[in-house]
Write a structure and sequence with these properties.
CATH class: Alpha Beta
Order of helices and strands: EHHEEHEHHEH
Largest sheet: 5 strands, parallel
CATH superfamily: Resolvase, N-terminal catalytic domain
Number of helices: 6
Distance between the termini: 68 Å
Strand content: 15-25%
Number of strands: 5
Helix content: 55-70%
CATH architecture: 3-Layer(aba) Sandwich
Number of domains: 1
Length: about 150
C-alpha cells in the first residue's frame, strides 16, 4: 500500500475560529480512503496559525523530511493555497517533493493531467498570492492610518 502524509494549514484567527483546519483534515482523510493510501496518524500535519507566505512551518518541514527520507509516495493537501499563498513557493514545494518521487494531490484543484489543468492551478496560485499581498497591504495601511490618528490626538 502506498504511504501518504496529510498537510493542512490555516493562518487567520477567523479560519481558526471556524475550525477549518479540522474540516480540511477530515476531507483529506476521506480522500486517502478513496485513493487507497495509508496515512499513519503521526503523518497528519496541521500548521495552525502559520502564514502561507513563508516556507518555515513545522508541519511542512515534517512533510519535506518524510519525502527526503523516502517514507511517503503521496502528500494530500486540501488546495494549492493551503500549501503556500505564493505561487512560486507552490511550484518549489511540488517540484521538491517530485524529485523525491512524491506525488502531491490536491482535493480542490484540477488533476493537472492536461495543460489546461496545469494552467488553472497556476492561475489559482497567482490569485492566492495576489490576495495575500492585497490583504497584507490593507493591514499595513490600516496600521499607518491608526498611527497617524494617534499622532494627531497628541
Amino acid at each position: 500500500m502506498r504511504m501518504a502524509a496529510i498537510y493542512a494549514r490555516v493562518s487567520s484567527e477567523q479560519q481558526r475560529e471556524a475550525h477549518t483546519i479540522a474540516s480540511q483534515t477530515a476531507a483529506l482523510i476521506e480522500l486517502a480512503r478513496t485513493l487507497d493510501v495509508e496515512v499513519p496518524t503521526a503523518w497528519i500535519f496541521e500548521d495552525e496559525g502559520y502564514s502561507g507566505a513563508t516556507l518555515e512551518r513545522p508541519g511542512l518541514e515534517h512533510v519535506r523530511d518524510l519525502a527526503a527520507e523516502g517514507q511517503i509516495q503521496t502528500v494530500l493537501v486540501y488546495s494549492p493555497d493551503r500549501l503556500s499563498r505564493k505561487y512560486a513557493y507552490q511550484v518549489l514545494i511540488v517540484e521538491e517533493l517530485a524529485r523525491h518521487g512524491v506525488e502531491t494531490r490536491f482535493l480542490n484543484a484540477p488533476s493537472g493531467a492536461t495543460a489546461e489543468d496545469q494552467l488553472l492551478v497556476q492561475f489559482q496560485g497567482m490569485i492566492a498570492d495576489y490576495a495575500e499581498r492585497k490583504s497584507s497591504s490593507a493591514r499595513d495601511g490600516a496600521s499607518v492610518t491608526a498611527h497617524e490618528r494617534a499622532k494627531s490626538v497628541c
